[in-house]
Amino acid sequence: MQIEINKSRNRQRTVSAKVVGETIQISAPQNIPDEKLKEIIENLRSRIEKRTKKRDLTSDTNLQAIVQNLNEKYFEGEIEVQSIEYSTNQDKIFGCCTYREKRIRISHRLATMPTWVRDYVIIHEMAHIIEPNHSKSFWGLVNRYPLTERARGYLIAKGATEEEF
C-alpha cells in the first residue's frame, strides 16, 4: 500500500490514518519530528495490514459453514458456536475458545496449512465448548476426528508445542 502524508497546522497532537483504495492517507501535526512520524506510520501500517488480512481471510473462507459441517459430522449437531473468526494476533497459539460465550478464534497461520489441519484446530476448540479443559473426556471428543494424530504431528513438525493446540 502507498502512503500519503498530509501535515496540518490545525492538527495539534494526534496522527490518524484511513485507507482509500490502495493508499493509506496519514494526517499528522505539522511540527511532528520525521523519526516519530515514521515510527507511528509503521505501527499504523501494520495494524491496517492485519485488519485487511483478517477481513480477506474471513470473507474468502466461510468458517461458520465449516463449523456447521464439522459439528454435524463429528458432534451430531450438539455444539452451538456463536462465532468463529480468524485472528491475526495469534502467533503463539493456533486457536482459542471462549467457551462461555461460545466464540472461537483461529490463527491466520492456519490459512496456509492443509484444510485437515485447520479442521482439527476447529474441532479442538469446539470440544472446549463442551469440556473447557484437556481431560480424558475432552480428548475423547477431539479424537472423533480421524485425522487428529496426523494433524497434531503436522503442527509439531511445524514447530508447535503441546501447549499451542
From TrEMBL:
<dbReference type="InterPro" id="IPR053136">
    <property type="entry name" value="UTP_pyrophosphatase-like"/>
</dbReference>
<feature type="domain" description="YgjP-like metallopeptidase">
    <location>
        <begin position="78"/>
        <end position="145"/>
    </location>
</feature>
<protein>
    <recommendedName>
        <fullName>YgjP-like metallopeptidase domain-containing protein</fullName>
    </recommendedName>
</protein>
<dbReference type="Pfam" id="PF01863">
    <property type="entry name" value="YgjP-like"/>
</dbReference>
<dbReference type="InterPro" id="IPR002725">
    <property type="entry name" value="YgjP-like_metallopeptidase"/>
</dbReference>
